[in-house]
Design a protein that fits this description.
homotetramer; about 120 residues; mainly alpha; Arc Repressor Mutant, subunit A; two-stranded antiparallel sheet; elongated; DNA-binding
DNA sequence: GTGGTCTAGACCACT
DNA sequence: GTGGTCTAGACCACA
């Protein structure tokens, strides 16, 4: 386990997103401890400081709390918080840009709508 | 005019996209000269080397040609080429990612579809 | 009772100060036993070793004595001793720093003086 | 220049405060560039990453802005902002604690008031 | 056991 | 020139 990394983005950000997704998907439950910095560093063959940096961001975003001498723990409500934040960001920031681009490129919307409908029916 | 810049992407890429969009939208016509490196550098309060780098990319993408002693000129067919390339990129790369994200976030597709329909009817 | 803790200072020091203040205010009388390490650990949801460390400091400061098999007891004269030490520390170390800071921040001293007068008149 | 450092607080925090004070006192003017990370690292015989960490905090506090490829610059209004923040923190957080402690220790307020008056008259 | 800090030295992207 | 990232390895405080 060592070559997931995308060269364009710093590892610590990718790692942060990875953990975020694990919280979102329930791979790590609220109240649980995150794997220790050292553990992750070894598993992913990454420097402990790099892992530390990822975890610190999650603390700053109030998704994770540090219990001194014990480790990092997923806060209660973290999963919902992530979901809410990401939804909001998509709706308010990403989607409008996407619409603008579609208009800008003068794309045929019927195809796009169809692909969206497919997704909708599978939910 | 100085704070358009997004911190996550290098200025020279943002500048390149800006020019590309001006070509696409007809703000700069095919055959026309691009504003001089110095001019742009002053207008946008950017280092001339940064502007050069942007222009060079456009030359590499064969949208623009350098005429020695005269400046940079938009090639004939550039606009269409941009449009084609961007369309393809959107359909093949961006849109699938967008769909995945929508599914991932479990978003309500009906709203999204409605906003797309609105755009479609205005075209 | 679990989140009194200030993240900047180690828990064992905060706990030590807490006990000190209880001695000072008479919540625990001289000659009385301190609550057992286990008890405190449970009450405050803290590791017993952390509590031990706090108590050990109080022993080192000769405010508390250990009676083997019985527990920790507040020494006679402890309250006065705490008061004397803390007074001295405040006057000699804390207050000068406070004055410097007030000057540095260029604060209006009249307000501060008024709040001090209020306290004085209530004593 | 190498042994200013207090062992109890991380260097990067001390360095941050040092820069903050330089902004506050006008040693570095608003709009000016901060000394480069490498320069400071050499001057103070500290690792560049440590300096970087300090500077990053100032960016997060919006006192300093990064201009890519150019360096870090003191934002307009930074000095006032620092002053306002520190004043507020003193009045709302530090001073009440000080008052409590004075009351708690049953200190003679007249001396304290006198020392405050002295400061006041020198302003 | 846990995370936090620091160093020395390397490499990279941006301007 | 600028800052950002990462490594490898060390040491420390806390629980």
């Amino acid at each position: 386990m060592s070559f997931n990394w995308n060269d364009k983005e710093p590892i610590y950000l990718q790692l942060k997103d990875l953990v975020k997704n694990m919280i979102l998907s329930g791979d790590i439950n609220e109240g649980d401890a995150l794997p220790s910095v050292r553990q992750v560093a070894m598993d992913y063959k990454v420097n402990p400081i790099t892992v530390s940096k990822s975890y610190q961001i999650l603390v700053d975003e109030e998704l994770v709390e540090k219990r001194r001498g014990l480790g990092m723990f997923v806060r209660i409500g973290a999963s919902e918080k992530v979901q809410t934040n990401e939804n909001e960001q998509f709706i308010k920031e990403d989607w409008p840009k996407i619409l603008t681009k579609i208009q800008h490129l003068n794309l045929d919307t019927t195809q796009l709508i169809n692909s969206l409908k497919e997704i909708g029916s599978n939910q």
